[in-house]
Amino acid sequence: MHSYQSQLQGELAEIMASGTYKEEKIISSRQGAEIEIDGKKLLNFCGNNYLGLAGSESLAQEACRAIDQAGYGMASVRFICGTQTIHKKLEERVARFFSFDDAILYSSCFDANAGLFETLLQAGDAVFSDELNHASIIDGIRLCKAERFRYPHSNMDELEQQLRQASGARRKMIATDGVFSMDGDTARLRAICDLAEKYGAWVMVDDSHGSGVLGANGRGIIEACGVAGRVDILTSTFGKALGGACGGFTAARAEIVEYLRQRSRPYLFSNSLPPVVAAVSLHVLAHFDTLYTAARKSLQEHTAYFRERIASFGYTLSGDGSHPITPVMTFDEKAAVEMSQALYEKGIYVRGFTYPVVPKGRARIRVQISAAHTREHLDRALEAFYEIKNLRP
Which of 228, 264, 229 is nearest to 249 (CA)? Predict the structure, then answer.
């Protein structure tokens, strides 16, 4: 055995013993509110399938039509021979849907973030990042040569102090999640925009969990906070509420998008988004205001109902209640793992989140509500949580 093999085996053993090992559950059914794992039927309460579209028959049929028309893949990057009419139509629709000049597609929002900061920021610039931002923002910032500042979560006083400290920077950018996925709370975007305007900074928002969910019309955190026209760059995904497959985008002013087309490495060196994903994503956006209004209303009602009931059992919840991410706090690492397993045995599929995914002492079960859930589904999950709460010492 090579020495590196034994080293890796030892390191893997440490990971498995630490309680942070991430076992992949293999789903043998279509994605949805009810799934099957290892022959066991479960209610799924840990997906990003907020509007219930990922396993929907209507989108499956739309995908079949798209494949018949546009084929399976492009086998090329965009600037060589990887751009079909459907890609341009989707970019135009994204820009219009979120009220930006233009948009650019990526294979994921992770790639959109990975290709953003290095392209737009350089030595002599400064970037300011919320400490709870998604890993893709953190990794994207690591690729750029700008001076990096990390401010405590949603601490506007500290952010302002850092902006003052970087007053001599050529270009300043504040980067934040719209919805913080581990806690379910939202960015203080109005205050961030106020500071950005005061200190001449750009505002970049990754609204992957907010797009299609937040706001009166589902346009996300920008609409919910009333800051349309004040955010410079929006990144998001088609992999959650807006279809549930894959693909991401950056929407911004025309000159920013064009600059990304010329210099953003994940865009230039990755295959185009498959035409079938582009076509179905376009379908979702084009019919969003007519087909999915009822789903958004159900999602809001489900979220309010679940949070009110589970809080009444004595559980501590994180988040501000505006989003279907509902973290049930255990604080203890072992308790989170044990609770998720107990819920699994009762037919409820959730995952325990422990360090290093969340800070030490902040372990939790992250429950995610979907419009695909019924009131009966919610009540079955609530009953399981209630029984576990009463059984625990």
Answer: 264
Q: Does 323 qualify as catalytic in the annotation?
A: no
Catalytic member of 136, 181, 211, 370: 181
% pLDDT > 70, the chain: 99
Q: How far apart are CA 125 and CA 170, in angstroms?
A: 5
The pTM (predicted TM-score) of the whole model is 0.95
Q: In this structure, what are the phi and psi dihedrals at residue 66, rounded to the nearest 5 degrees?
A: -65, -40
Q: Same domain, yes or no, for 206 and 348?
A: no
d(CA 91, CA 109): 14
Which residue in 87, 134, 172, 240 is the catalytic one? 240
Which residue among the candidates 209, 283, 302, 323 is catalytic per the annotation? 209
209 in catalytic set: yes
Domain end marker among 290, 317, 332: 290
351 pLDDT above the threshold of 50? yes
Is 287 annotated as catalytic?
no
pLDDT in tens, 186-197: 999 999 999 999
- The answer as to whether 15 is a domain residue is no
Pick from 16-25, 120-129, 164-173: least confident:
16-25
Mean pLDDT of 380-391: 92
Q: Domain limits at 356?
A: 21-53+293-391
